[in-house]
């Protein structure tokens, strides 16, 4: 991963597994990101979206305590904020509108996730 791509970026973390949410937050902070969250419920994620902080990118667990994260993904998509999904399921479960979004399988390979976030940010900036 190119050094510094996440430095200073506000990254929303939406993950319902406490330990994984903590690990993601620490890894992202180590990469220089400003972590927003983590949100462990759909409701909390929506609350965080309402904050005035500008988001640069997000990591979204597809399934939050049995609820799909798609309302958050739709809101980010409308705001043109790039995001990456994480899931323990096959990526084919994603609705067609999200098939172009990168999806990292669980258990998460942090190097792969950081690369996916970098690609999402660079692609969004190029548009």
UniProtKB/TrEMBL annotation:
It comes from the Bacteria. Residues 10-121 form the Response regulatory domain. Keywords: Phosphoprotein. InterPro entries: CheY-like_superfamily, Sig_transdc_resp-reg_receiver. The keyword Transferase does not apply. SUPFAM superfamilies: CheY-like (SSF52172). The keyword Nucleus does not apply. GO terms for biological process: phosphorelay signal transduction system. The modification 4-aspartylphosphate is found at residue 61. This is Response regulator. It comes from Rhizobium leguminosarum bv. trifolii.
